Amino acid sequence: MIVTRNSAAFRYHGHLASSEIDELEYASLRIFECRRGLLEQRGRLGFVRRCHGDLHLANIVLIDGRPVLFDAIEFDRNIASVDVLYDLAFVLMDLIRYGSDAAANRVLNEYLARTPEDNFDALALLPLFMSMRAAIRANVLLTRLDDQDHSKDIKKQAQAYYDLARRLICPSPPCLVAIGGLSGTGKSTLGRMLAGAIRPPPGAILLRSDVMRKMLFHVNEIDPLPVAAYHSGTAETVYQKMTSKAVRILEQGCSVIVDAVFARESERSAIRSAAGNMNCNFVGIFLTADLETRTKRVGQRSGDASDATPEVAARQETYDLGAVDWTIVDGSGPPEQTFDLSAALFASDVQPTKAWFTP
Asked: Which Pfam families does UniProt cross-reference here (predicted)?
């Protein structure tokens, strides 16, 4: 197995602490044994297939603003046939290695939005997959130490990958973040800003009620729905499905951000209870903004999953929100300000740090 071969190579190179090598191997094999059944099931479902095989950042180039992959493992079909998430894990790990946590999170969320639902039941494999990829990079670098002119720099790089492998194999507990607020308060923008900064890597999975509703009606994300699709019965179904999916992700050890209006006390209570039942940390944020700001933002939207209009935003002013027991955050200012106000709410074990972000 790759884990064992990595450990043997680390011991052979002699540059790393033996006790740490043993700890990494033990943790990796423990997860492997725990997830062996899932790995085998993934193979039967067709998720193990011919992939790129070596998808680190040095094998990706931007051409005309689009990522182009090269130097794939084309010489051996068996070596290149891996779980698709193991292929993805290489680029996720490398982005994290170079401090682009938010970019790694965006890649993961964009990938999940375009792939079969079964991938949500395999997110528990990511810590093992990303750790193995980091260990492989460390070993590859250590084989180059004969080049004395660059040996110091190479050893430093190898150590960084090795330390990352050890960190990724022991992820911190996941958390559930719920972001509520009327249309135009900045929920989705805040969710994207927070997602890449929340532990464990590669950050939180984003769930939007607007997207969930479009999926329910089997339409494209940006296709408008009729008013009838927004009656109370449908809303209840959307919130139930969103809560169920959040629990499904938390069970895999990944953090989740749920983005919805959450205008009713019952909706807010249900998502908080879901976190309590999972025994995970919960952060509830309710964004506010004046009607003028909300109307302006909603009116400027294009290519978005939300069907809210300025008229909808105005109508929401009459909502009876009841007792809001989440932290109320002013979302009327710039996104960075809302981010800073929200980031201060997190416990130290999941405290986010500001990272690269593109709306």
From this structure: AAA_33 (PF13671)
Q: Which pLDDT score, from 0 to 100, does residue 149 have?
A: 58
* Domains identified in the chain and CATH numbers: 2-168 (no CATH), 175-350 (3.40.50.300)
Q: Which residue is associated with the tokens 């180059």?
A: 144
Q: What is the pLDDT of residues 202-256, one digit of tens each?
A: 999 999 999 999 999 999 999 999 988 898 899 999 999 999 999 999 999 999 9
Q: Helix %, strand %, coil % for the chain, to 5?
A: 55, 10, 35
Instruction: Give the pLDDT confidence score for residue 231 in this predicted structure.
Output: 86
The structure's pTM equals: 0.92
Are 287 and 186 spatial neighbours (Cβ–Cβ below 8 Å)?
yes
Answer for the pair 326, 282: CB distance below 8 angstroms, yes or no: no
CA distance 180 to 266: 13
Predicted confidence at residue 335, as pLDDT, reads: 97
